[in-house]
Amino acid sequence: MGRWEPDAAGRFRAAAIELFAEIGYEQTTVAAIAARAGLTARTFFRYFTDKREVLFDGSGRLQQMMVDALAMAPVEHSAMDAVAAALQKAGELFDDARRPFARVRSVVIAANPDLLEREVAKMAALSGSLALSLRARGVREPDASLAAGAGIAVFRVSFAQWVSESERRSYSEIVNESLARLKEITNQ
Amino acid sequence: MGRWEPDAAGRFRAAAIELFAEIGYEQTTVAAIAARAGLTARTFFRYFTDKREVLFDGSGRLQQMMVDALAMAPVEHSAMDAVAAALQKAGELFDDARRPFARVRSVVIAANPDLLEREVAKMAALSGSLALSLRARGVREPDASLAAGAGIAVFRVSFAQWVSESERRSYSEIVNESLARLKEITNQ
User: Fold this and answer.
1) pLDDT band at A4 (very low <50, low <70, confident <90, very high)
2) What is each CA distance from A96 to A103, B18, B24, B36, in whole angstroms?
3) pLDDT (tens digit, 9 = 90+) per residue, A119-165?
4) Alpha-carbon gap, residue A131 to A151, rounded angstroms
5) Residues B178, B154 contacting (CB under 8 angstroms)
6) Residue B3's closest CA among B46, B66, B67, B65?
7) How far is CA A174 from CA A96, A99, A160, B104, in A?
8) What per-residue string of b and e applies to A54-87 under the rule 16 or more CB within 10 Å gives b?
9) Distance (Å, whole) CA A83 – CA B109
10) Which end of chain B is flanked by fewer CB atoms within 10 Å, N or C?
11) Contact A83, A149 (CB under 8 A)
């Protein structure tokens, strides 16, 4: 007990999402997650504060990846091109192996107002970080906040589409299409 | 006590915002708001559930006004033009007489994570309502959600600018400029 377990975090994550899908988020206990993962609750708490954190522990990494990609985009990139680079970078987290987890996660969050509020707050924080990073590139306001806000709109729409039931296209393809649609509708 | 008072809601709102500015949101009690308004706490609770509602009771009306304006925009309007009509309609709530209240409200919300989370959730709900109203006009996805999301980005940026310390331009002027900037940056 408490000893190092190979990919314990990944096993807890997989076990939690299975249980959320099978018996519901509210009904799932940390004890049940640990039992399903073949680990102990004590080990669970070395990786996560609570079951909610299983759903949100990727968001810090997502934000860091996007901010870094934005900062490293070629200096001649426009604000929206830099945001597009950040959105594409996020695709490294959203490959096909991850899609089943992301689908269940989305269903669980949509059904729980507290989780939805947290998800929305994370998106607002992400938008703020992207705007800050754009200003560091020399983009002025209101352009920085507008590009960040529009980018988050593209991200939310694309992500929701990527996890939708019958969708087969990659996250990256969907982001490109959403960016093209945004350009089109702002010109009509 | 409990009898009808002319513009009691307005008096409570003015009293609350004065106290929030003077002694802080956390420190302000309903009793103090009522005393400042020259009314009773009992009367306060006929208009508001709690002090927090003083800050958010306008959001339902804002959403209804924007959704109605969107629905009534000329049928030949593009999705973004219909969203622009909704953003401009909201300006009826944001005239210069309202700016001091809106300024204090923004400062109070920015300083309180719970209030900020609620504000962000309201914006997400507003975005969802606008997307729904666009779909009712025949706008397809992802365009409806992208136009709504981009519109909310414009709204947040414009509103923040409108309440900023030294800003003198009207809400309407700022919205028009933000919409023009959005168009510009999505084409670069």
Assistant:
1) low
2) 11, 54, 49, 60
3) 999 999 999 999 999 999 999 999 999 999 999 999 999 999 999 98
4) 10
5) yes
6) B46
7) 13, 14, 10, 41
8) bbbebeeebbebbbebbeebeeeebbbbbbbbbb
9) 28
10) N
11) no
ipTM: 0.89
Note which residues in 63-122 of chain A have CB less than 8 A from chain B.
78-81, 116-117, 120-121
**Residue of chain B nearest A118, judged by CA positions:** B117
pTM: 0.90
What gap in Å lies between CA A148 and CA B171, rounded to an integer?
21
Chain A environment of B56 (Cβ under 8 Å): none
A152 part of contact set with chain B, CB < 8 Å: yes
pLDDT-derived band at A1, boundaries 50, 70, 90: very low
In angstroms, what CA-CA distances link B101 with A42, B41, B51, B156? 50, 21, 15, 17
Q: Which residues in chain B touch residue A156, judged by CB atoms under 8 angstroms apart? A: 145, 149
Q: Which tokens is A101 given? A: 């987890």
* CA nearest neighbour of B128 among B106, B151, B110: B151
Task: Write the DSSP assignment of A136-156 as a string of letters.
Answer: HTTPPTTHHHHHHHHHHHHHH
Extract the tokens encoding B92: 């009826």
A-chain CB neighbours of B161 within 8 Å are: 142
CB pairs under 8 A between A and B: 112
Cis before residue B142, ω within 30 degrees of 0?
A: yes
Q: What pLDDT sits at residue A113?
A: 87
Residues 6 or more apart in contact with residue B108 via CB below 8 angstroms = B20, B21, B25, B55, B115
